[in-house]
Amino acid sequence: MQSNDSKDLDLVEDGKRQMELCNACRYCEGYCAVWQAIEWRRDFSDTDMTYLANLCHDCRDCYYACPFTTPHEFGINPPQLFAGLREETYRKYAWPGKWAKALGDSVAGFWATFVFAIIFVIGFVFANSGFDGLFRPQTGDGAFYVFFPENLMIGVFVALGLWMVAGWGIGANRFWSDIRSTKSEKDRVLFKDIKKATLYAASLKYLDGEGAGCTYPSEEPAKARRTFHHLVGYGFLLDLASTTLASFYAHFLHIPAPYPLLHPVVILGSVGGIMLIIGLCGLLYLKSKSDKEVNDEKAVKTGSAFTWALLLVAVTGMVLLAFRETGAMTMLLAIHLGSVAALFFTAPYSKFSHFVYRYLSLVNFAQEERVAHEAEVAQKAKPAKKPVAIAGGIASKN
Description:
Radius of gyration: 25 Å
Shape: elongated
Structural class: mainly alpha
């Protein structure tokens, strides 16, 4: 049986073959950042393939435009290739690496973490208050902390948050070191590059298709995927803002949760939760309709698992808000806290980490784009060569 490392090597080598053919053809010139980055290269290293894969937004325009896809002998399929390479990225740069296969490379291991976390939290309540405690209504200030002591909850989620950030941070450092390994000192990243990359990321520029949208899930351009991604991204940020604001109220103003429905904390969380649910359901629907010829089977499975997990967190949060003054509150809170804990723990290994690598790829691209533009400007600014007369004809003088 072929090992995973061998499969990854084969994928990288086939990627180099495809990119060399694409660079010779250049029919897709200017389609997106990936094709510009390809044109700036003549040879492709292993780290180039990692960079290009994470720069790709899977818009699929190139696939549907290409005359050399299967059944042509060239078998060009960049979206499928890059999806497989991105999966390899999540495993290669994950920290600690020994968890990558169990939590990031295995859908069963990923879901086992969620099941364990939820059962553990429910068991904690049962051990402290018995069966009745799971269905006993709790209202008023501090109701969320009756069965989950505030200091314990804070300690657990601070630890999980640090685990998540450390995993992302170490992975990002490893990834950045690799994709920048061939750069010289003169190719350093400037603030203007980071600013441009941030604008690219925030606007999802490369899912825009020059205004027509991307060819996903079918050959017809559509804007739905970009819209759903925006709902998920900004919905998550609103929920993060809600949690941050709740911490401020609880620890600086000494006003404990739960808060009234029209409280800023609840409004931010509710709007963010609704945006998340709509966006995630939309992405799952589009994924179910996407062209299987372009999909990477493993990437679809692991990506769908993460999307469903994030949807579980969003839905349990909204249901908890709706039933927080009923006997179902404690059980719902236990399920929600367990799912959030599992999401944090698996974050460095799941598709949750893709935004880290894609953003760094966009920063690298913005730097390359600036350097290419500066070189073009400098070339145009060079004085024209002056002709000089010589015996028998005219020559150019530098």
